[in-house]
Amino acid sequence: MKLNCTLLYTRYLLLLALTLHQSSSATSPLSILQSDDPILALSVTDYGATGTGLQYDTVSIQSTIDACSSTFALYLRPCHVTFPPGKYLTATLYLKSGVVLNVSENATILGGTRLEDYPEEQDKWYVVVAENAAEVGITGGGEINGQGLEFVRRFDERKNVMVSWNETGACLGDKCRPRLVGFIGCENVRIWNVRFNQPAFWCLHIVRCQNTSIHDISIYGDFNTPNNDGIDIEDSNNTLITRCTIDTGDDAICPKTCTGPMYNLSATNCWIKTKSSAIKLGSASFFAFKGFIFDNITIVESHRGLGLQIRDGGNVSDITFSNINISTRYYDPSWWGRAEPIYITTCPRDNNSKAGSISNLQFINITSTSENGVFLSGSKGGGVLRNLKFINVNLTYKRWTNYVDGLIDYRPGCQGLVNHSSAGFIMEHIDGLFVNNVNMRWAEEKTRKWNNPLEFRPSTVNNVTLSNFYSGLYER
Q1: Cβ–Cβ contacts within 10 Å for residue 443, how many?
Q2: Taking a C-beta distance cutoff of 8 angstroms, is the pair 278, 299 a contact?
Q3: Which residues contact 86 (CB under 8 A, 6 or more apart)?
Q4: Interatomic CA distance for residues 369 and 471, integer angstroms
Q5: CA 441, 443, 446, 449 torsion: positive or negative?
Q6: Bridge partners, residue 257, by sequence
Q7: What structural domains and CATH numbers belong to the chain?
Q8: Alpha carbon 333 to chain centroid distance?
Q9: Which DSSP string corresponds to 363-415?
């Protein structure tokens, strides 16, 4: 029976009205996806998908998504596109309102590696993308794989050289690679119980979305691949990340503000290992970051632990880091970072930029073992760091790699790499620093030269309170 187009359009308008009502209510923003109503399910194999991994199943999968979305618009019930065990090679898939990709265990969505597998617009290069959709998600226990290693031209233990498509004129530089999964301008997104593997570029990209829940997922990217960020949250509000495992070569959780401010982000109960920053605000930072909580996170052998790289004039305020265990180490100077457990910086990216302010940061119950110290650097004028609190912090400094020490890393922009002796805390351009119950320990061996627990320029650091601060040699 043919569906009446006017009826579908009317019901779709009803869906939008319902979604707007839900996003403003005090109840769960994911009420439809999490409702007790029976779930409608359509299998991609019923629409012709082969699941061999040898031929493209794009048309069959997209037809299933389209049918599922139409069903959702008609009945206002969640609809799952199911993937039985198998490998499904595909070009870009467009996820639509009311649809959840249910990738079952032993099922894998494989992203294509040809330029023609992706749209003409480079900013739409994703294996799976949802744009301006509501009530969408991914789950099922299976895997989405970007085949990132297929884009490597030359393997390098320091930093892989990636195949790019710039020879075709499609773009410039080595960032000519597709992202794995993106949600753009969406409402009520839920991503859970799924594995994301081998992204060629960024893995999970949340852009201008409202009400996003990401939980119980794993992300794995090759450790020597540049730009394979774990989760990039851009200009999105009301985001929850919990119980996630991220093991990748670039920034693991990375909020950015490019076109608007970002509010209410929580990341909890996560395990992270990265060759860059485990948590990094910026460096894209044109608008405000406010009201973030990072709690109960384990950071393992990362190039940098907790980082703020504010370079474009946006202001940061009301951020809490609590109950975090950090270990950092040197990897290579070609990667940003010098093994700092905590790195808070704001400075103009270039002559056309300005420094944003950073205020009201709390670091509570933090434990770290690192090859370098804490770096707190504001800028003259509007870029002063204000009201930083360190409460119940245990810092252990010791070296166990042979990389060159004695450098401060301001990158990107600003002053670049600067020669500087190591210290427990390096501080500049701060107004308001409260330190209570901080224990700083120094390993004896090579780090004996680290004889300066606190280094600050008196003319640029004001209103400092030290209470129960201890520094001494590390006892085995």
Answers
A1: 19
A2: yes
A3: 49, 50, 51, 52, 53, 106, 107, 108
A4: 14
A5: positive
A6: 285
A7: 9-16+26-250 (2.160.20.10), 279-476 (no CATH)
A8: 22
A9: EEEEEEEESS-EEEE--SGGG-EEEEEEEEEEEEE---S-S---EEE--SSTT
Element (H, E) at 59: helix 58-75
List per-residue pLDDT tens for the chain, 476 residues long. Answer: 333 333 333 333 333 333 333 333 333 334 455 555 668 999 999 999 999 999 999 999 999 999 999 998 888 888 999 999 999 999 999 999 999 999 999 999 999 999 999 999 999 999 999 999 999 999 999 999 999 999 999 999 889 999 888 888 888 888 899 999 999 999 999 999 999 999 999 999 999 999 999 999 999 999 999 999 999 999 999 999 999 999 999 999 999 999 999 999 999 999 999 999 999 999 999 999 999 999 999 999 999 999 999 999 999 999 999 999 999 999 988 889 999 999 999 999 998 888 999 999 999 999 999 999 999 999 987 899 999 999 999 999 988 898 888 888 999 988 888 888 889 999 999 999 999 999 999 876 654 566 689 998 878 999 999 999 999 887 66
Q: How far is CA 95 from the centre of its chain?
A: 21
pTM, 2 dp: 0.91
Nearest Cα to Cα of residue 265 among 233, 312, 299, 297:
233
